[in-house]
Structure formats: structure tokens, C-alpha cells
Design brief:
- The N and C termini lie far apart (41 Å).
- Helix 3 runs parallel beside helix 4 and helix 7 packs parallel to helix 8.
- This protein has one domain: 3-Layer(aba) Sandwich (Rossmann fold), CATH 3.40.50.
- It is of the alpha/beta class.
- 41% of the residues lie in helices and 20% in strands.
- Helix 5 links the parallel strand 2 and strand 3.
- The mean pLDDT is 94.
- The chain has eight helices and seven strands.
- The structure holds S-adenosylmethionine.
- The site of S-adenosylmethionine has 19 residues, from helix 4, strand 2 and helix 6.
């Protein structure tokens, strides 16, 4: 019998070990982590944060699009790897979250670098026309599959699409873990992963850290 473990898609002792060994974040990011934990705000776990940080420093992106901003934690983290003059657009539909993110971004001195757009990403992404080096999909999980074409359209060749929570506490991988009320999200995440790996214009890796992350590069 498989047991459902909150926030654990690998053995918890492996996660504990990885978290213990991970890079030290600066004081500001740590304060956001504490705030998120105290207020039950879902931000990327540390091991996913570390992957985002590596990818951002590797890519040195000029234009970043993020779907799902919450309090601005991952935007600020990704901004550390931007090329000089690089910009991030992050989309968030909760007015409270968007306001908190703007405040945090201001405190981090990044108001000229990160723009928080208060909108429903499902509609907003259809109207976007920029060219992005790096897209981080971390918004409505049940809609990833419907946003995929637009993400690929907006990505430059060689650009990367990083999608979070794709293994969804293991439920995507095994029916025995699926909670009834999550069935629709799980089915759509499975469709999303299948669509990602089948696309001939992408190469995708599924990485079982945090809540499951895919990294796709546009060919
Ligand atoms: C997991 S949190 C984002 C965490 C953030 N990326 C971080 O790690 O710091 C997901 C966010 O997506 C937002 N969201 C959900 N559905 C959305 C939609 N349709 N359009 C825009 N934002 C959405 C939620 O309000 C929530 O703040």
C-alpha cells in the first residue's frame, strides 16, 4: 500500500538531506520563506528554488514570464540571474497576493525589474506577444495543458519552460494516491506531461524534486 505523504514525492529523508545541504539564501529571501510558511502561502520548496536559481544563472535571461506570483518569492529569486537590464513579467490573479508581491519587490529594490500583472493568466497569456527566454509556469495546475501552446509560442528557440507541481504529491504518477476532489487536476497534469514530452519542438525532462518539476527547452 502506498502512503500519501504531504510534500514528499521522494523519501522524506532524501528531501531532508537535500534541504540541509542546499545553498544559503540571502536574508531577504529567507524572510519571505518564513512569511510564506507562517501564512500558509504556497511558494516553491527549497530544492525547487535551488533548481530555479541554477537555471536562471545558466540562462542569464533577458525576458522572463512567470505565471503564478504569490508574494513574489520566485520572481525575486529568478531575478538574481537576469542579464543586465533583464525584465520579469509575473502574472497573479489574487489582488491580495499581487499587492503583497509588489510590496516585497519594492522592498527588494526591484520595482523597475519585475512587473506584477494582476490578471487571470489563462486569458492574459493569449494576448501576450513578447519573446521570452525563460517561462516559469506555477499558476493554475488544471490549466497548464491549455496554456502550453501559448507558452511555446512565446518562448524563443533555446528558451526554457519550467513547470512546477507536475507530480502533484505523487498523484500524477499513481492512482492509489489520488484524492477524489483532485481527480480533474491530476488527469489534466497527466495530459500536460504527455503533451510536453510528445512535442517535437521541445525536449523535456521530468525531475522528481519538490512537488515535481519539468524543464523543457525549445528546439
Ligand atoms: C504556487 S503559487 C505561486 C508561487 C510562486 N511562484 C513562488 O514560488 O514564489 C500559485 C499562485 O498562482 C495564482 N493563480 C492561480 N490561478 C491563477 C490564474 N488563473 N491566473 C493567475 N494567477 C493564478 C495563485 O493565486 C497563487 O498565488
Amino acid at each position: 500500500m502506498i502512503e500519501y505523504e504531504k510534500d514528499a514525492i521522494v523519501h522524506p529523508y532524501v528531501t531532508r538531506y537535500i534541504r540541509g545541504e542546499l545553498f544559503e539564501r540571502d536574508e531577504f529571501l529567507r524572510s519571505l520563506e518564513s512569511y510564506a510558511e507562517e501564512n500558509n502561502i504556497p511558494i516553491v520548496p527549497r530544492e525547487t528554488a535551488s533548481l530555479l536559481s541554477v537555471l536562471s544563472h545558466m540562462m542569464k535571461p533577458v525576458n522572463v514570464l512567470e505565471i503564478g506570483c504569490a508574494i513574489g518569492y520566485s520572481s525575486i529569486l529568478i531575478s538574481r540571474g537576469l542579464s543586465l537590464g533583464g525584465q520579469i513579467t509575473t502574472v497573479e490573479y489574487s489582488p491580495e497576493m499581487a499587492a503583497a508581491a509588489r510590496e516585497n519587490i519594492k522592498r527588494a529594490g526591484l520595482s523597475d525589474t519585475i512587473a506584477v500583472v494582476e490578471a487571470d493568466a489563462k486569458d492574459y497569456i493569449k494576448e501576450l506577444n513578447g519573446v521570452y527566454d525563460f517561462i516559469f509556469l506555477d499558476g493554475p495546475k488544471a490549466h497548464y495543458v491549455y496554456m502550453l501552446d501559448d507558452c511555446v509560442r512565446l518562448l524563443r528557440k533555446g528558451g526554457i519552460l519550467v513547470s512546477d507541481n507536475v507530480l502533484y504529491k505523487g498523484m500524477t504518477a499513481d492512482d492509489r494516491l489520488v484524492i477524489r476532489r483532485k481527480i480533474t487536476i491530476v488527469r489534466r497534469l497527466r495530459k500536460f506531461i504527455s503533451a510536453l514530452v510528445k512535442r517535437e519542438d521541445l525536449k523535456t525532462s521530468i525531475i522528481p524534486i519538490g512537488d515535481g518539476v519539468t524543464v523543457s527547452v525549445k528546439l
